[in-house]
């Protein structure tokens, strides 16, 4: 699977058409009045969110997108045709930044809803034809306007997947095995670190209509926030999740201590600066810890030490095997509770749009 999560594009709205300079010429009407029509406005560029897309791959080859020119005005007061609009389809979760003249980038919009369409670059106005300028003192104006250029922008599109649940943990902890167990996603699984290089999404269906989206992201290591391993590049995909599942390998396969693993990854999450729309940081999200690989638990003391460490901190821990499925139903129930709570909170925030949690 190809996955592109950041692209830069250039969009150009259409130039407006020129107004016409024209005078009526008809039989029996000598010296006809001015009848130059207005130019048509140029087409605009829009972005539209589409649920069936999950990458920005379409933007990898074509980088410049132009809307149509407005047609020139014509005689007989004929207005030029409007330029054709262009709507670029992007996946839900696309954040749009505009590059400023000084090189800085400013977020201009965020497409989060299926079917949402946002005007990005407005077409230029068409010019007035000379018919507009007739007055009682000037019945034969020769004045007309050119069309105006359309807006032109350099954009950076950044896809932040919209998942309810993020799986985090060291490389090789079993994140991809977990998502393939609990959803229909089939990512690559292998016995070496950094098998997963791009995020994978899966839908988990529980009984009834309870379902949620899980993201499996590349593994983290100590120093990820300073760029070690794959860095925190992929953590931005988790900014909008409602709960994190922290997977810790409690078998001896890792050669590390599970308590240390938990602390290291927790510290990396705490150092990640990104926030979601409500100002929440990754470290503020509810965490469910999955002590994984209990089918291969050669030293039960490893699980017990992790359990004691977390119980002290009031964090729930589920002993599971992503390989055999043991313990997963209980873990998913706990995850669902947090997802449902997060959704209820989002719905309440949406119903109360005046409240701005970032500024208060
Ligand atoms: N015995 C046992 N092995 C497991 C379990 N879960 C995962 N593994 C093995 O652990 C190795 C790594 O699993 P992955 O699912 O690829 O791990 P990951 O966390 O996605 O790793 P990265 O993508 O590199 O970050 C594979 O050999 C899996 O078969 C488990 O519950 N029990
Ligand atoms: Mg993986």
Plain-language structure description:
The protein has 360 residues and is of the alpha/beta class. The protein folds into 2 domains: 6-159, Spo0b-associated Gtp-binding Protein, Chain: A (Distorted Sandwich); 165-351, Rossmann fold, CATH 3.40.50.300. Helices cover 16% and strands 22% of the residues. The protein is built from 4 helices and 14 strands. A 6-stranded mixed sheet has the order 10-11-9-12-13-14, sandwiched between helices. A hairpin with a 5-residue loop joins strand 10 (200-205) and strand 11 (211-216). It is elongated. The model has no long low-confidence stretch (mean pLDDT 89). Guanosine-5'-triphosphate binds at residues 169, 171-177, 189-191, 193-196, 218-219, 292-293, 295-296, 321-323.
Radius of gyration: 29 Å
Distance between the termini: 42 Å
Ligand kinds: guanosine-5'-triphosphate, magnesium ion
Helix count, DSSP H or I runs of 4 or more residues = 4
The overall strand count is 14
CATH class term of the largest domain: Alpha Beta
Unreliable spans: none
Give the amount of beta strand, in percent. 15-25%
């Amino acid at each position: 699977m190809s996955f592109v999560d950041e692209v830069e594009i250039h969009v150009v709205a259409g130039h407006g058409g020129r107004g016409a300079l024209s005078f009526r010429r008809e039989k029996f009407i000598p010296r006809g009045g001015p009848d130059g029509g207005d130019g048509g406005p140029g087409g605009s560029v829009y972005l539209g969110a589409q649920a069936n897309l999950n990458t920005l791959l379409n933007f990898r080859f074509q980088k410049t997108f132009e809307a149509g020119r407005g047609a020139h005005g014509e005689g007989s007061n004929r207005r030029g045709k409007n330029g054709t609009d262009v709507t670029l389809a992007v996946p839900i979760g696309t954040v749009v930044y505009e590059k400023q003249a000084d090189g800085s980038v400013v977020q201009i919009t965020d497409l989060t809803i299926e079917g949402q369409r946002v005007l990005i670059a407005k077409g230029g106005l068409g010019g007035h034809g000379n018919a507009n300028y007739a007055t009682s003192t000037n019945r034969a104006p020769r004045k007309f306007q050119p069309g105006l250029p359309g807006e032109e922008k350099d954009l950076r599109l950044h896809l932040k997947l919209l998942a309810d649940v993020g799986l985090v943990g060291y490389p090789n902890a079993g994140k991809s095995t977990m998502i393939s167990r609990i959803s229909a996603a089939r990512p690559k699984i292998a016995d070496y670190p950094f098998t997963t290089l791009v995020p994978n999404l899966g839908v988990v269906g529980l009984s009834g209509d309870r379902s949620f989206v899980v993201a499996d992201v590349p593994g983290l290591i100590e120093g990820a926030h300073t760029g070690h391993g794959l860095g925190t590049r992929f953590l931005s995909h988790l900014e909008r999740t409602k709960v994190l599942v922290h997977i810790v390998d409690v078998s001896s396969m890792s050669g590390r201590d599970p308590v240390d693993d938990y602390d290291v990854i927790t510290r990396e999450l705490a150092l990640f600066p990104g926030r979601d729309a409500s100002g929440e940081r990754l470290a503020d999200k509810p965490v469910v810890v999955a002590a994984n690989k209990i089918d291969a638990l050669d030293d039960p003391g490893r699980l017990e030490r992790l359990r004691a460490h977390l119980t002290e901190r009031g964090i729930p821990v589920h002993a599971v095997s992503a390989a055999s499925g043991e313990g997963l139903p209980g873990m998913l129930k706990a995850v669902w509770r947090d997802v449902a709570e997060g959704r209820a909170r989002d719905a309440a925030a949406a119903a109360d749009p005046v409240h701005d949690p970032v500024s208060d």
